[in-house]
Design brief:
The complex is a heterodimer. By secondary structure, chain A is an all-beta fold. Chain A has no helices and 11 strands. In chain B, the strands form 2 sheets. In chain B, strands 2, 4, 5, 9, 10 and 11 form a 6-stranded mixed sheet that branches. Chains A and B meet through strand 5 and strand 10 of A and strand 4, strand 5, strand 9 and strand 10 of B.
Chain lengths: ~110, ~110
């Protein structure tokens, strides 16, 4: 069973469209994250939710809106997509406290805006 | 905030040793992690240091000096499958957020 699963794996869409990426974890973790990895491979945090509550909101355009219906799910909705949104988006999760393995990552969603 | 630096690329020969350095500046330190990421895949956990010193796990070792804001990942007996990007990440003691360096792409040649 996949621990952190994201759908879709690939997403190609036109500028101006609205799209969503879904993430689910079956590890029983309390905290979930969205990271963006750009073409230079730099992995940057966007949002973090702990038990359905937003706890980290980095400087991200408000076209990006995360939603956590329960602690096992964290979705990312993107409005009015732009070319610069093209990247790989990784979902991750971690248990409470200070785990000595950091995060468990999903396999990523490669978003291409054309 | 965090400022994490590591070299962009390194190349080594199969069977050799490579050391990837990472320097960081942080407002609150709660551990340093190394992740491996193969092209097109998710980052996977390699090692964790929170106290000064060396942690060894098979062919991979990681070292930390908190006073110097410095870590390195040592890869021994390199294999072709070790060709990947290696990410240094620091956890913040205030919000447990992991901040990543830009990654070091290691290419292993026969």
């Amino acid at each position: 069973d996949t621990a952190v699963s994201q759908t879709p794996k690939y997403l190609v869409t036109q500028m101006g469209n609205d799209k969503s990426i879904k993430c689910e974890q079956n590890l029983g973790h309390d905290t979930m994250y969205w990271y963006k990895q750009d073409s230079k491979k730099f992995l940057k945090i966007m949002f973090s939710y702990n038990n359905k509550e937003l706890i980290i909101n980095e400087t991200v355009p408000n076209r990006f809106s995360p939603k956590s219906p329960d602690k096992a799910h964290l979705n990312l909705h993107i409005n009015s997509l732009e070319l610069g949104d093209s990247a790989v988006y990784f979902c991750a999760s971690s248990p409470p406290g200070e785990p000595n393995y950091g995060y468990t990552f999903g396999s990523g969603t490669r978003l291409t805006v054309v | 905030g965090q400022n994490i630096d590591q070299p962009t690329e390194m190349t080594a020969t199969e069977g050799a040793i490579v050391q990837i350095n990472c320097t960081y500046q942080t407002s609150g330190f709660n551990g340093l992690f190394w992740y491996q990421q193969h092209a097109g895949e998710a980052p996977t956990f390699l090692s964790y240091n929170v106290l000064d010193g060396l942690e060894e796990k098979g062919r991979f070792s990681s070292f930390l000096s908190r006073s110097k804001g410095y870590s390195y990942l040592l890869l021994k007996e390199l294999q072709m499958k070790d060709s990947a990007s290696y990410l240094c990440a620091v956890r913040d003691s205030n919000d447990y957020k992991l901040s990543f360096g830009a990654g070091t792409t290691v290419t292993v040649r026969a």
